[in-house]
Amino acid sequence: MKKPPLKVILAAPRGFCAGVDRAIKIVEMAIEKWGAPVYVRHEIVHNKYVVDDLRAKGAVFVEELEDCPDDRPVIFSAHGVPKAVPAEAARREMVFVDATCPLVSKVHIEAERHHDAGLQIIMIGHEGHPETVGTMGQLPEGEVLLVETEADVGGVAVRDVAKLAFVTQTTLSVDDTAGIVAALQARFPKIVGPHKEDICYATTNRQEAVKAMAGRVDAMLVVGAPNSSNSQRLVEVGSNAGCGYSQLVQRAANIDWRALEGINSIGITAGASAPELLVQEVIDALGARYELDIEVLETAKENVEFKVPRVLRTPA
Known about the structure:
alpha/beta, Cobalt-precorrin-4 Transmethylase, domain 1, Rossmann fold, 3 domains, 5-stranded parallel β-sheet, 4-stranded parallel β-sheet, 36% helix, flat, 4 iron, 4 sulfur cluster binding, 4Fe-4S, 4-hydroxy-3-methylbut-2-enyl diphosphate reductase
């Protein structure tokens, strides 16, 4: 039986960013250096396949430092941790490696700089997300106030309207965040923003790629995890940019085929913590049902690379 034709547009860039790639390498190098088990506080990145793969190699994932023994190395996830966590690890004389993405660390440094200048900080982010928890935990209680939506801006109670700064989670929707920033600036005209936008290059690039293809496809598949903020934002961006149907899938097995019935074209992208082999798995699953015509839509080139910590590098 002849397979129906399907136009596939592959977003580029998609998938792993430099911070995710670095974090995974850190866990792998730690296992190589110290042997298994190596403990990781929180999922190193938000992707089940990646976490399961590292677990099979000897990583043990825990939620809190108290779940780790003193005599084994512990790694802090790419999302960043509150200052109290490395302080406690040092107190316990643990070997620890910080895999925080350098672009998240940049936001931490920014928040501290504003705090040192006497400013109270408003953070735009998702409550409970590990990156938000980590950034807010860089400063004493009450020094960082959280807003999630434009509506939240009207209710935030600040110490001094003339002494404020804002930072953002790195994985937010660019468009939604712009609206919240505008609301902050309207209510607090003297609020200080970051020198360079906090939303990271990878988040921005992946959202721009989705916008570029959204109007050209009947449906879109975003390969990523439900707890991945940047993946969830790609689904939203696709819908908002004119794609009739956007679906988040962890693996090809999660595709809702009934929802795709009758489509002639589909876009595929992947969140920054989703490996390329999962994208290929989705393409193969589509190829089993359709005759594919694949086009790569490249909207940006990425050549960013972050070094791993010195403790894990072999001396030159």
